[in-house]
Amino acid sequence: MGGGHLFTNTTNPAQSSGEGIALAWKAGAAIEDLEFVQFHPTALKFYGAPCFLISEALRGEGAILVDKNGESPVKNLENRDLATRDQVSRAIMKNMHENNVDHVGLDLRYIDPEKIVERFPTILSRCQDYGVNPLNEVIPVAPAAHYWMGGVKTDLNASSTRKGLYAVGEVASTGVHGANRLASNSLMECLVFARKMSSIVLNDLSKFEKFNRSFQEFDIEDPKEDQISRIAEKIDELRKLCWLNLGVSRNKVNMSKFLNYIQNDIDKLNKNDLLNSLEKIKFDQKIKLSERNRRALNLLLDLKNRQITTITLLKACLFREESRGGHYRDDFPDKDKNWECHTRQNLDQKIQKRFIKN
């Protein structure tokens, strides 16, 4: 799974919260190129509606972006509406900021209505479900986190640097997407690497010792409902801060402040009694939890894993002092030959460059 749900605005489901990265990180696997996050420029932005992806194929057919004044937010880009996703996303964000709005419009009225009905029935019906009729009005859209090029470093057999740990899909960093994935290539990547992984030789299960697992009661006071709600609020707050500081455009000043904030929150969470009690459970034990503690623990583990993945992403974004692909720094807006490399992170080690071998 990916990590789009680390951000407030995303086309990804809630399960794509970067948990796979956090688990691999804790296991000691190398993580690479987390700073390369692709933001799709046109996701539906409508009150009460999810960030449903509005395909760029519509712009390929002739749809155009318009701001609240009826002007093009991408007029300064060489290829205007057909520029790359990162360029269009930045132009839209800039226009939204200047006009103090949370969306721009996508105007489909330059396309034959019959073609829209025939070629884009899902987009048409989803918009109509939320009271927007693209055949006679603009679709409100805004950028959203969409795909993660970085992840758990894997080789051509889908193996991570941690023996016995494999990764396939968006959670993996195979290198095939470079710094900015082309649309739909991720599906082909999944098919190819899943097939490669199918040929691995697994350990003989009969050699593993079997345990009769015993139950361990948890002697921990049940949290109150408002305490459980506060954990959910902390997750939402983290997502908002991730969008503000690690979204389409980044800079050292904002990211450094965010680093201090999240490190402080991690230190506080590490003192949580319910989370710390998990450390006392032995491999051959099961646990019994009250319903409230179960709900609280699920949220706490979600928050903890999100914190781990977010701070790892943050450090990668701070480390790469240039702009390339899905990573844009407004304090380092150009590409730099010194950064023609991967960024690698390992548990208890400093982040470092990994140069490409010819």
SSE layout and pairing:
Elements lengths: L18 H9 L3 E2 L4 E8 L12 H5 L2 E3 L18 H15 L4 E4 L5 H7 L1 H9 L9 E10 L2 E3 L18 E2 L11 H13 L16 E4 L7 H22 L5 H18 L3 H5 L7 E4 L2 H29 L21 E5 L6 E4 L3
Parallel strand pairs: 6-7, 8-9
Antiparallel strand pairs: 1-6, 1-10, 2-5, 3-4, 4-5, 10-11
Helix pairs in contact: 1-10, 7-8, 7-10, 8-10
Can you offer a commentary on this structure?
- Helix 1 crosses helix 10, helix 7 (225-246) packs antiparallel against helix 8 and helix 7 packs parallel to helix 10.
- The chain has helices at 19-27, 57-61, 85-99, 113-119, 121-129, 185-197, 225-246, 252-269, 273-277, 291-319; strands at residues 31-32, 37-44, 64-66, 104-107, 139-148, 151-153, 172-173, 214-217, 285-288, 341-345, 352-355.
- Helices cover 37% and strands 14% of the residues.
- Among the domains are: 37-147, Alpha-Beta Complex (Flavocytochrome C3, Chain A, domain 1); 214-331, Methane Monooxygenase Hydroxylase, Chain G, domain 1, CATH 1.20.58.100.
